[in-house]
């Protein structure tokens, strides 16, 4: 069972939980299961083609998912996923 | 109207951070407590602006690893990451279209206008759930 930590803006879509525990073998399966369990999260994580949105960063422990094997990255029970939104703006 | 409460000290730190980074934009994160109507800032996490150099006079970006570290700190302190502050050098303390495109609903966005290097007014905004526009939030500072 791996823990997925949600950023504050998304917790409201997951019954206010800071962390959701998911039983999955890969990161892709974990995120897909998360969106299935809490459908309100889906549009904030995935685009219409089902790809992870560009402004959504996912870390497996301290490693950026983009530097790993993407959705196919294997998950161990003690792994922790963190979803981090990209924050930017300007005048 | 929802409300963000900041102590005078925290507000002053936000103003000084914006002045320090002028003529570029400065940015950081706000940790605190929240309920449905009110948010209370407890701790700031001042950060570097990681937008590409040459564009930072009107753009800011917060590194995802800095965000993750701030989330860890919030956990340690039993707080939540409730908002983002940034400065607008020589521009109004109002969100731009670029701000809207990149913002997320729920967070409180504090914007401080820096005029010729000196901090002027700060205003606070939240993006509507449908992402159509920002709604102003009451920014309340006090002396505690």
Structural class estimated from helices and strands of chain A: alpha+beta
State the distance separating the first and last CA atoms of chain B.
23 Å
Low-confidence stretches of chain A: none
Query: Helical percent range of chain A?
Result: 10-25%
Adjacency order of strands in the biggest sheet of chain A: 2-1-5-3-4
The span between the termini of chain A is: 43 Å
Mean pLDDT metric of chain B: 95
Percent of residues in β-strands of chain A: 25-35%
Annotation field: number of helices of chain A: 3
What summary fits the major beta sheet of chain A? 5 strands, mixed
Number of helices of chain B: 3
**Range of helix content of chain B:** 10-25%
Query: What fraction strand of chain B?
Result: 35-45%
What's the gyration radius of chain A in Å? 13 Å
Largest sheet of chain B: 7 strands, mixed, barrel
Mean pLDDT of chain A comes to: 93
Question: How is the secondary structure organized here?
Answer:
The complex is a heterodimer of chains A (91) and B (144).
Chain A: E1 2-5, H1 8-11, E2 19-22, H2 27-37, H3 42-45, E3 56-60, E4 63-64, E5 80-85, E6 87-89
Parallel strand pairs in A: 1-5
Antiparallel strand pairs in A: 1-2, 3-4, 3-5
Chain B: E1 3-7, H1 8-21, E2 27-34, E3 38-47, E4 60-62, H2 64-76, E5 80-89, H3 97-102, E6 108-115, E7 118-127, E8 134-142
Describe this structure in words.
- The complex is a heterodimer of chains A (91) and B (144).
- By secondary structure, chain A is α+β, with helices and mostly antiparallel strands.
- Chain A is built from 3 helices and 6 strands.
- Chain A has helices at residues 8-11, 27-37, 42-45, and strands at residues 2-5, 19-22, 56-60, 63-64, 80-85, 87-89.
- In chain A, strand 3 (56-60) and strand 4 form a beta hairpin.
- Chain A is globular, with a radius of gyration of 13 Å.
- The mean pLDDT of chain A is 93.
- Chain B contains 3 helices and 8 strands; from the N terminus they run βαβββαβαβββ.
- Chain B has 144 residues and is an alpha/beta fold.
- Chain B is globular.
- The chains are: A alpha+beta (91), B alpha/beta (144).
- The interface between A and B is medium-sized, with 19 and 32 residues.
């Amino acid at each position: 069972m791996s823990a997925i930590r949600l950023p504050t803006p998304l917790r409201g879509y997951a019954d206010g939980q800071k962390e959701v525990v998911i039983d999955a073998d890969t990161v892709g399966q974990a995120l897909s299961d998360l969106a299935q369990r809490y459908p309100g999260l889906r549009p904030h994580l995935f685009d219409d083609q089902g790809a992870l949105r560009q402004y959504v960063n996912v870390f497996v422990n301290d490693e950026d998912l983009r530097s790993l094997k993407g959705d196919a990255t294997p998950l161990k029970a003690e792994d922790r996923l963190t979803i981090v939104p990209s924050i930017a703006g300007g005048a | 109207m929802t409300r963000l409460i900041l102590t005078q000290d925290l507000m002053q730190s936000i103003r000084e951070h914006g002045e320090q980074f002028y003529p570029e934009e400065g940015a950081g994160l706000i940790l605190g407590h929240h309920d449905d109507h009110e948010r209370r800032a407890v701790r700031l996490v001042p950060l570097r602006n990681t937008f590409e150099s040459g564009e930072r006079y009107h753009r800011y970006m917060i590194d995802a690893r800095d965000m993750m570290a701030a989330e860890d700190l919030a956990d340690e302190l039993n707080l939540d990451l409730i908002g983002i502050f940034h400065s607008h050098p020589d521009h109004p303390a109002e969100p731009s279209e670029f701000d809207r495109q990149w913002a997320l609903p729920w967070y409180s966005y504090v914007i401080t206008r820096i005029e010729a290097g000196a901090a002027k007014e700060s205003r606070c905004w939240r993006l509507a759930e449908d992402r159509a526009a920002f709604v102003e939030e009451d920014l309340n500072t006090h002396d505690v």
